Amino acid sequence: MLQFDMPAPSALSEAIALLDRDDPGVRPFSGGTALMLMMKTGVFQPSMLVSLRGVEPRWSEIAETADGGLSIGALASLRRIELDPAAARRAPSVVHAMRRLSNVRVRNVARIGGNLAHGDPHMDMPPVMASLGARVRVRGPGGERFIAIEDLYSGYYETVLARAELICEVVLPDQRGWRSVYKKLTTRSADDWPSVGLAVSLRTSGSMINEIRIAVSAGVEKLTRLTDAEGVLAGAEPAEATLAQAAEAAMAAVECVGDVRGTAAYKRELIGVCVRRAVQDALRQESVQ
Length: 289
Known about the structure:
Structural class: alpha+beta
Largest sheet: 5 strands, antiparallel
Number of domains: 3
CATH class of the largest domain: Alpha Beta
């Protein structure tokens, strides 16, 4: 059996102070759904797990902000977000995506902060959050900073977080007037890991797309904004020819990674298909009020 320490501080500042920047065996622990699998397979052997479950309750809260946005504490479980009325009002695409994210047993335990910090490119939440313009609030020994979700990931299973930094909150801007969709394509069950996960958020004026954000995961090494495709669609009417051009721009811009859920060439084609379908589906949605 593995032997390790597991302190349970009562404040986030105490937890940060316990995180040793020089010891890779020291990790924070909240839900632990991914961490426990890594320990069972021997990929990770801890010297200390710092439990975050006893820190201030505010880091588990979900609330609408004064400017119409949404604040989600990093220790809020995925299931709590899925069922939260404020999340349903302010970020319905997050709630919809949760229903196909793994299974309810995992969602009951997994926390949103750990989900985003894990760095696995197959996760569902990063593209959804990136399409909504979300940021994470990060605290560490050097103080506090905000990082846009799209800038959080530096590579395969890699983030820009320092070893002793913790995500403490996810902040979404006001979504009123935006329409958002997440397309998850799986090779097995609907709640399996995606072959490609693609999220679109857009705002329209009449028949024209004013603003659009498109983010993709799973088929690529890390979460990626499809800015070339966005450039085709922003300021344009979503005619079939324009959607086809945006799909081609997305396919040309991405460097796909093959795995057991599909070859790189297959995933590139899926991304093109998802761009067209996600934009069309988003246009059919009611905008957030």
